[in-house]
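Quick log. Single chain, no ligands specified.
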Amino acid sequence: MKSSRFIMMLLFANIITLNAQHKQPNILFISIDDLRSELHAYGVADMITPNLDAIAAQGRLFKRHYAQVPTCGPSRMVMLTGKNLTSSDEISHPLLGNRLAGKPETDNPETFIHHLKRNGYYTVGMGKISHSISGRRGKELELPHSWNDFVTNPDAFQMYAGGEHRDAKKTPPFEMLDVADEVYPDGRVAQFAVKELEKRANAKQPFFMAVGFLRPHLPFSAPKKYWDLYDRSKMNLSPNPDAPKNVADEFLHNSEEFFGQYYSPEKGGARKRISDAYAKQIIHANHAAVSFVDAQVGKVMDKLKELGLDKNTIVVVWGDHGWHLGDQTIWGKHSAFENALNSAMIVKTPQMKKAGIPSNSLIASVDIYPTLCELTGIQKPKGLDGTSFAPILDNPKNETRTEVLSYWKDVVSMRTDRYRLAI
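-> predicted structure:
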């Protein structure tokens, strides 16, 4: 009798173990605006990014991740839909919201988030995920059928601590004030994420949570303590500060966002360098903003671990595109060069094999959709343009692409293993 009871207990324990092993993983998706592949984990020694570095040490850092479009809205549209642009007319920030907001649900999922929701996931978002920082187009959600809940951040578009909006005649492209993290939207978004994780901790339904941080998008506003991490005198200037020889004018631009939308004591632009002193001031501001957002990521990751959710949660850190810090005389994105298209990308999965070893394989933002489908065991919809990079998560030596196509205005840019061609 005792032996029969013991056998039954073993069987029951095995069933529980099997159920735990087959439970669908949660997904924490962290979007960071304008994040270059310039973290300490990428080998940039003077960057102070311990929290993002920790994710890289436990996951897979991608050295050659490329966005399809070097600007926010269209890049996010491609990532969310898993489909490339079909014309230069689609390079528009509000395009995805214009297409979807207020529209009825169809058989085709509007985004991979919608697809996860249809397949049993509880989906919640906060911050900048599609394009609008409020997640809305007017009163309607930009992604009306993707979310179970979208957390509204009051004063989401706040750029400066006092609530000012950018003004080309008086507001600089950065701000340093001795204030708490929560004075800025990213600090509040981190708080929202922590509270939402607490809600999800005991839920039976797997969750997808998207957390969208603004910095280091302009203006480079960050509390003083993050500026104090760096010694400006030791800042490195761009290794490629001049325009390439014989480059056509259409491949350069006058950094209109930086010099046209903010007050600047010096004006640079295509083929025109600014002083080294001012360049270091801007680079210092950018690094402070990156360290600021790194700290917010750390708050979310700490809560994930504290709740024990890290054991069954896929973590994706995605930079929507790159940014020139004086490279090729450009201060901004909006180019077909490597600096504007290469961005940070880190993926951490539970029980990852060969964790901490980075990948040199080519991947693209459009690949995220099919990859998440494969990782969650959900059949991907037909018509996606991306290729799953799940095999690289198993082994960093695997490769899933031979080239990546990107687009800016009428320029098509192709990145291969050794070269970039832009026409």
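DSSP finds twelve helices and 17 strands in the chain.
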